[in-house]
Amino acid sequence: MIHLSARVHKTKEWKLRDSKKKLSTRIWEARFIYLLIVPTILYFFIFAYLPFVGLQIAFKDFQIFKGMWESPWVGWKNFEDVFQSAKLPQVTINTITISLYRLLFGFPVPILFALLLNEVRVLWFKRTIQTVTYFPHFLSWVVFSGIVFNLLGPLGIINLLLKNLGFEPINFLTMPEYFRSILVVTGIIKEFGWGAIIYLAALSGLDPQQYEAAKIDGAGKLRQIWHVTLPGIRPMIVLMLVLSLGGILDAGFDQVFMMYNGAVMGVGDIIDTYVYRLGLMEAQYEMATVFGLLKGIIGFTLIVSANAIIRRMGEKSLW
Amino acid sequence: MKKGKAATGALTLLLTASSVLGCSSNNNEGTPTATGSAPVASESAPAESTAGNANQKVVKFSYLRPTWGPATYAKGGAYEKELFKQANVEIDVQIIPVIDFDAKINTILAGGDLPDVLWANGPLMERDRNLQEQGAFLPINEYLDKYPAVKEAVPDGIWEQLKAKDGNNYFIPNLIYPITPAPIMYRQDWFEKLGIAEPKTVDELVAALKVIKNSDPDGNGKNDTVPLTAGYEWSFKDLATAWGVSFNGWTPDPKDANRIIPSIANEKNIDFYYWLQSLYKEGLLDPEFKLNKEPNFAENKFNAGMAAVIATPWVSYIEKVTKLQKLDPNAKVGIMSPLAGPDGTPGGTRSVFPVDRGFYISAKTKDPDGIFRYLNWTLTEGSDFRRYGVEGKTYNVVDGKKVVIPNEQRETDYKGEQIEPLHFLDPIEEKLDWDSLQLDYEGAGIGDKFAYVKGKFAEYAKIDYPDWRDYTVASPADAELGARLWNDYLQPVIDSAIINKSSNKQQWLDALKKWSDAGGQKIIDEVNQLQTNKSKPDYVN
């Protein structure tokens, strides 16, 4: 007893003393902890913040060889050009539509999958399914779109089936009415297994006592999921939702670029593919930078506002 | 015309054309001259020079170039070692598959860290003209005077056309022969089996394709042979001449002979696109056309006996016959003569500007003289090595003549894809050298076909449908607006014209009107105003 109280006392004393120390001293005392975070800070500084200086290209007449510092300023001219672009409304609408579809249909899938997987009691089966479903995440879209082409292409497996069953073949990939669905569905297939990992982690952190309590109260499986599991992972769901709202203007460049073609460009051309064609293929770097800057600003605004809304709703927010 | 289109078109075409040329020149690459015996690959790095350049130090430089062949180049191969040893160089090569060339080169340029020698599109393109003016590249005139073999490899007229405003030359062009027919090739054995006579007109072609669609020429029990395939729209450049069209080119305005208009504004060209669309709709044109992103899918399909007819560069004939005969010894490949159009217009070929890209030397390079010394070597002492390669590895001597070994029969280190990345400049006289082509045909075991192919070439070359625009005359409006206007208004409709079944001519005309109002008309007017010489170009003579 004496022992214990002495220790409590000691700790308090130590804390008191600690806060009186100068900041620099405290940092020095915890220097090894700080050392651990240095690589992270460096990483973000070099790869996320340093490139900000390149944003000046959006306000310049960029001349490749002179470099961005020597290129002359042109004010808002590049922005005016971008807003005059006749394609801008179309690619913006396509981008947002595709993103919203992804959110609407794609966002719940990993959650449902994680819930299902969480109920599996045979460990080897659970592990196998998990591995199989997250494997496609590691394939690049170049490879995965090749697989999609072999399935849905004019000479693909589905058309082979249709033909042998006596139907007319359907050229899915050239039909604007199917293209966005194909994007969304193949995107979900590729990523849902990977997306479920974070929810599975959250699920494993739930307190088993709550389930026991629910059972004693007479809750069946579905009730348990509804009243224990879902509320338990709600903070994680909300967090992921905020993050995906920030990426609403990223409709998936790799995938669209690999899968689109002239016939579906009207519904499939997104901001990023347009910027790629104009900015990189035609060397209009300024325009590409303007788009990048605008996308960044919009994405930032969306994250901040979504976060604010969520905080007001009383959920755990990002910050 | 919007530069985008013209440039992309020109590049695509060059791409196709040069893929052919690329292949053929691969076959001509490389071997040693000095020793008569087959050279042994040296194990050591080429530090020590051979007798000829004993007193010069090793020339070292970095080199960035596109490759048309498979991108499987590996540093340090036997051919490379041999070249380095003989020429006393060390070249640090970086390759870009040609399909990604524009995007990659733009990224590398924007990065500002230029290799010593790099390929680019040249001063006919706005970006490169700007770079020249900004001082990114080395003016080469003094070196051309010092190393006349390099200067003589390129015709004076072309040096003149590539000259910058300041009177200097910066760009060393990759020459191509302006006549590169893209004929229609077909499985002659299948046509004979089905009793189809060789088509003489596009209507007869359509009739033949219909017969093929509804029959089983390869005898596999299914009517699954693709009637007509092609890798790109550009593959149809010579078929388009049957409509009187210069594909992706400018031609005289039918309403005003003193004006030229781009193909996008040419009704005949629009008709040609929708004619292709009708083939696509009827299942006569490969359903994978413009969908399959594998660059060689059409060639592969034809070479594997899955397609009956293909629009393809004429230089691919050897490869087609040899590959097909491996599968089916009775396979025969025919070349259709230029087809007559729907209104009887005689077909011909769509010639091209005789330069397909080329390379610059960076202004910051340390040893420009060494680079030119090396280029000079490849055109003098090293000429045979550049052209034929290594005896016993890339060519054999038969009756005193160097006969190229077909790529499939070479050791890995001596295949074209290992040699192409180390290639620089071929003189103009090698660009269409019938004697050496004949040896290629003989080397591939189809020497009896040489006269046939040469005859077809002549038939195509008879009528030329060139691009009337002179790209050495820059259009500032095109440079400023072209790319965006093309992307905003025309590309959506033109890219979908063939494969989108609901696309129609009226949509094209509507898009053209919008393009025109948004600044396209300004580009056409400016080109016409600045280009005073509107006579028909003749690149051959």
Number of strands of chain A: 0
Mean of pLDDT of chain B: 87
CATH domain class of the largest domain in chain A: Mainly Alpha
Q: Main beta sheet of chain A, described?
A: none
* Corresponding CATH architecture of the largest domain in chain A: Orthogonal Bundle
* CATH domain topology of the largest domain in chain A: MetI-like fold
SS class of chain A: mainly alpha
CATH class of the largest domain in chain B: Alpha Beta
Could you state the CATH homologous superfamily of the largest domain in chain A?
MetI-like
Count of domains of chain B? 2
Biggest sheet features of chain B: 5 strands, mixed
Oligomer: heterodimer
Q: Helix proportion of residues of chain B, in percent?
A: 40-55%
Structural features, described:
The complex is a heterodimer of chains A (319) and B (541). Helices cover 72% and strands 0% of the residues of chain A. With 319 residues, chain A is an all-alpha fold. Chain A has 2 domains: 1-75, no CATH class; 76-312, MetI-like (MetI-like fold, Orthogonal Bundle), CATH 1.10.3720. In chain A, 27% of the residues are buried. Chain B is of the alpha/beta class and 541 residues long. Chain B is 40% helix and 13% strand. Chain B is built from 19 helices and 13 strands. In chain B, strands 2-1-3-11-4 form a 5-stranded mixed sheet. Residues 1-54 of chain B have low confidence and may be disordered.
What attributes does this structure have?
heterodimer, A: 319 residues, mainly alpha, MetI-like fold, 2 domains, 16 helices, B: 541 residues, alpha/beta, D-Maltodextrin-Binding Protein, domain 2, five-stranded mixed beta sheet, four-stranded mixed beta sheet, 19 helices, 13 strands, 40% helix, globular, disordered N terminus
